[in-house]
Amino acid sequence: MADERAIYVRRESNPTAKEKRMSEPAGNPFLDLAAFMALPRLAGLALSTDGNRLVTSVATLNSDRDKWVTALWSIDPDGQAPARRLTRSAPGESNAVFTPTGEILFTSARPDPDAGKDAAEPKPSLWALPADGGEARLLASHPGGINGVSVASEEGTIVFAAATMPGAQTAEADAALLKARKEAGVSAILFEEYPVRQWDHDLGPARTRVFTAGPLDSETGSGGRLADPRDITPQTPATQDVEDIAVSRDGRWLAVAVEVPQDQAARRKRIDLVDIQTGDRRTLADDEGHDYGGMAFSPDGSRLACIRGRHSCWDEPGDSTLWVIDVSTGRGHDLTPEFGNWPAHPVWSGDGTALFFVADEAGHHPLFRVGVQGGAVTRLTARGSLSDLQVHPDGNRLFALRASVDSPAQPIRLDAQQVDQDPPPLPSPGALAGDLPGTLTEVSTVAADGSAVRSWLVLPTGVSAQTPAPLLLWIHGGPLMSWNAWSWRWNPWLMAARGYAVLLPDPALSAGYGQDFVRRGWGAWGAAPYTDLMDSTDAALARDDIDGSRTAAMGGSFGGYMANWIAGHTDRFRAIVTHASLWQLDQFSGTTDSAYYWAREFGDPLHKRQRYEDNSPHHAVAKITTPMLVIHGDKDYRVPIGEGLRLWYDLRRHGVSSRFLYFPDENHWVLKPGNAKVWYDTVFAFLAEHVLDGTWVRPPLL
Fold first, then answer.
1. What pTM was computed for the model?
2. Where would I find the H helices in 471-593?
């Protein structure tokens, strides 16, 4: 790992002490948590309009090792040259996109070089890196910060999103309102619609609005900054936060996914079409019981591809399909009516005759192709989880990031037509140095209803019938998800390095196995999902290299719900770790950030109580005898802290051996490097005590 980490050190004749420390050789990253936290993490991919340059974002630890900072890196599309770092700043850079003339636009909270010494702390702003290199220049800023950017790939029109206070018509007015709130000591937010928060942040008082400017060569003023960006947000009472936009290549059209209020405090998403030049708006797609999003314009701008999602209900899980809309008429049609899984993230081929998309499938997240006139869907990749697809101008080459259970995200080059490709990665900072501490295989079983249930199984190096490994059952979140990619937060290879085998099952409700597989667990979380997990565990324990006398179960979010359910319905495991978990479904149903989503499946808890009563883990608390480690973050708005607090109290009240790892400043996940390390330290210690018959050793920083 010495070479991988050393590339992040600025080469100077007199390096600082921090830089020396950063370049020191690291230990085995799967045994040394500090080295694991220091591994580079790739996200996002951008291709220049001429197809000659690729850029990705790489997150690494800062010099104090207390936060991850992203930088932009250049990747050679031909795979010949090594990756090269392009940017370097303490705040970091992200959201890279190319202009037609080769500049790289990105967002960063770098300070304004022209600001005075009394300037406020900088918010994320829009910057431009020259095509031929050199210093980046500030293009645009906004008092509430800029949080996304798109560019019309032919015309060069720039569209960006920025947080703006209600009633503020100009950036100056917005700044004045923010200043007045701060000086008055006001943090209150007045809500007039639901929801009020999401994941880990409040939805207000500022709302995201969309602005346009450019191209750079025609609309830059003094200092090379964009001159007077125009607000083109759809002017409708239905508009809330704008998170999903698409811009046509010629810069004429902006498509915006807009949230629309419905009865019973619910929401749906429609698509509004905005004429960027005039600001005129019309609704392009809007149906009761459906959401629209994930949009992409065809090369000529005449059609819009998107994902049309049917809402779930009491009787049926939701469904998604690839939808294409004629921009002039608004008429749409389904391109994947017979496709068994859920398409996502459509991208057009260069000539507009086909669409590429990804979808979960049997423990993978492959890339697919379908003609816009319909027909058979072709799978283009054989394994892994694909994201951030980029289409080369020649129409023959594709670029994407690929991760898998046994590999973090790395860039790859693909053929636009070839079936089931498995290309090697392009040179990048995302490659692991050294071997994994084990191997990856699959385990399958058949449930009582005849359904096939598959799992990944991570086996530690050296395991055998003579030296069988203890088993950890890991349950994924969602629940409409799948184990199909690398995870930095729940990494099974850290467990394998400590001698554990890790079972990663996809039980009922998992994505990638068709609608019927989801239906098996719909509204009955404690039924088929639970029995599938137990059957999968039995299948793994039937191997002679697994020690059935030493097992534990772990899960987060929905996986935490299942861990709690398991605790109350079997004593087969020596220990259970439950993270960000649901405990009392009635309580959860009204306090989670998007309660209407779960109400579609479970009903109104005042009038349809049966599913809450049948599936809430808290009813079985008196039956729990397995030691439990409860983990929760106070800033978790998806599964609010009340779930963890009540679970902890109920366990203590009933005399269950348990511990509570509480993070006052973390959300649904544990994102800060120090806290992430403590998370693993505590889990390791808890498992060692109960699964390996060791002595409890309290992590030193706790």
1. 0.94
2. 492-496, 515-519, 528-541, 558-569, 585-591
